[in-house]
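Spend some time on the protein that follows and explain the fold to me:
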Amino acid sequence: MTALSEVGGATDVGFSGGGAPPERAIDVGFAGGGAPPERAIDVGFAGGGASPERAIDVRFAGGRSGRGPLTWGQRAIWHAIGKTAPDDHYFNFGRVLAVPARIQGADAGRVAEALGLVIGRLEALRTRLAFVDGEPYQDLHSAGRLPLEIVAATAEQAADVAERLRERLAATAFDYADEWPLRAGVITVDGTAGHVVLVFCHMAVDGHGADLVVRDLRLALLRGTAGRAPESQPLDLARWQHSPDGRRAGQAALDFWADGLRRIPPTMFASPVAAREAPPFWSGLIVSRAMDVAVRVVADRYRTSGSTVLLAASAALVGAVTGHRTCAIMPIVGNRFTAGSRDLVSTLSHDGLFVVDVDPAATFGELVPAAWQASLRAYRYGSFDPVAWENLIAQVSAERGTAVHPYCCFNDMRLVEQAGRAFTPPDEAELRAARGGTTFAWAGKHERVDCRFCLHVTAEPGGLGVRLTADTGYLPAGMIEGYLRGMETLLVEAAYGEVRLADVAAMVDSP
């Protein structure tokens, strides 16, 4: 990737006043509104069930073009990508939109038109990376073209074909400098669009941002318009983060982290306990309706969120497995707490620091309120300059004479919880019987992941999904399944009784 020369005629989005490197302002534009050359894309479709017909262009045009520093969220993802490459496709994720039934006869051309309106509205989807002296910048383009794959299927196959297309489009890393941060396809049945498949680059959007894109695409299909452009876009966010107010907010978060890093165990999984598998990082997925219901029962009892209950369960189990009396987890913080950020399509997610004591003499019921307080602190201080954060990690590690990093993370990827909806809990026998429908499956193996223990929570058709990706040297493959089943056991037991933390270790099945 080579540095790009400066050209005139663009919106000046350079930043002054320092903050995060590089500090110099750059006024670079994409003159003339044309699109850069597109790479040829292989639209072969493996796996049977349907074959691609062709790819058509999605043409889009927005307003300004320009270049500026990465936002803090973008830089955090870029750091994680660097730690994970060449397996950085790990961060790709997708959405499948079922075309609303009330749209009669919508074809691939109509999908392309609607998608073009959405991309024109949202600058994150028109932004690639540019590299100047090796440093990445946001590079916003005013116009361009995106290939839209068309795959034919029967009505019975359409949903499965859409899912396979999503998997294929997500299976390779993005070219961050030369590819748009979105891949798209449409599944047609007798020429009519049935499903739209979108796969996102995490440098452009997070999970909430992706759901906003799907919302806008649905509206564009229904109404023929995506609405006015948001008042705030990623370049505007970067400008604020590099302002005096932004730097003060970032420093307050770093001060919170500094206090936590000085009191937690240096890391949660300190020593290898087994020979690593090849590849070394394995992902296991449990899908449990029983766990879904149990989480709601416990959350209702303590008037807290299901995410807090799951964080508390994670801390109890990590403490039981490792023997640590203080547990540190890095939850992914959505950072959408203000009116201006709720509808901002960008990658705002960042690491937080969740620290809670797990006293074996305490009960899980006592841990949940403490976890709620700890989670609020993590969310409040979950936005900061990742470069300054890396310097802080190095500083505290030097002070303590050992590397300090939890290497233990938690990501609740559900857009909304079911809190507030009518809920009648089942009786205890019914909940326990529901465990018979729980499934476990291996969900992937990876060469590199920048964590030793990473939990992802999702809403699945069969219930609550919890995926654990772990370094098999620190948590052997058999323990991955054991941990997930232990989490289900803990939550089901806690739904109708009190659980002592001293008893949690016995709930984790050994390999």
Observations:
- The first strand starts at residue 52 and ends at 61.
- The radius of gyration is 23 Å.
- DSSP finds 13 helices and 16 strands in the chain.
- Residues 1-50 have pLDDT under 50 and may be disordered.
